[in-house]
Amino acid sequence: MYKFASTDIPDFITVKSIVSVSRTIRNGNENSNDGEVHDFWEFLCIKKGEINILVDGEVYHLTPGQLIIYPPHSFHSVAASHEAIINVVCFATDSRAMSDFKRTIIDLNEYQLESLTRLVTLGKHLFTLAPPEVYDRGMIPKESTKDYELQRVSNMLELFLLDLYETESEEVSQSNVLTINNANYRSEQFQKLTDYLKSNLEQNLTLEQISSDCSISIPNLHRLCRKQCGCGPITYFISLKIGVAKKLIRQSSLNFTQISQELGFSTLNYFSKLFKSKTGMTPSEYAKSHYE
């Protein structure tokens, strides 16, 4: 009997479950829901129009053909000045390779755009919105969906992610963090506000203080933040704080009490509650997941 060589195939990127595969339309006149956080991966790709997206305190500007991917427990909110068509895919995976996606803006090539279009088209055929009396969000397979079709859409998503991984490993894109020079989202006021908030992260600022120090009325503050990052000014300020808290947990030797004090929280308990509300995890759980 011959002895044959064989190669075990690693689970480099494996999708465990699909939460939703959809195409959504965002209108510039829509009211923001002040953002959301969830325990699965998500990526957005712009098909038409432009958006700003706030992810853990950083605002990114996306134009057609650009994609952003971010990990579980990332607070995010979307703002669109005009109508925007967005492909949205949410999924769960435990694959370590996913940690190499660093919330960068990825410019999709023609092949990747076609692959994503096929993926979203198949998702629309296979899934429907989950019943609201059972689930808050997400999608479930239609009654006519076959098991092999679910595996097909999962494999298509894995292949798409593998292609993105290969592209990004060859040439790392720079994060397109919003500046006042971005077309259609130019705002010296917002840049001034962001600089002010970042320089006062150790403070417990009120709307009145922000309004006074930045010389922007409270109604205009709300309008400015809704337009630029899809949430209110206090939510934006808290997002900046939590984004820095995450970095300190990952990169510094400070304990949670010291981080809490560094960011101006009155008590460790309040910091922990706010951190969980914006990430879905306590600081201890977040630290453990990072080290693992």
Q: Would you write up a description of this structure?
A:
With 292 residues, the chain is an alpha+beta fold. The chain has two domains: 17-170, Regulatory protein AraC (Jelly Rolls, Sandwich), CATH 2.60.120; 188-291, Homeodomain-like (Arc Repressor Mutant, subunit A). It is built from nine helices and ten strands. The chain has a five-stranded antiparallel β-sheet with strand order 1-7-2-5-8, covered by helices on one side. A three-stranded antiparallel β-sheet has the order 4-3-6. A hairpin with a 2-residue loop joins β3 (51-55) and β4. α1 packs antiparallel against α2 (147-170). The longest helix has 24 residues, at 147-170. The termini are far apart. The model is unreliable at 178-185 (pLDDT under 50).
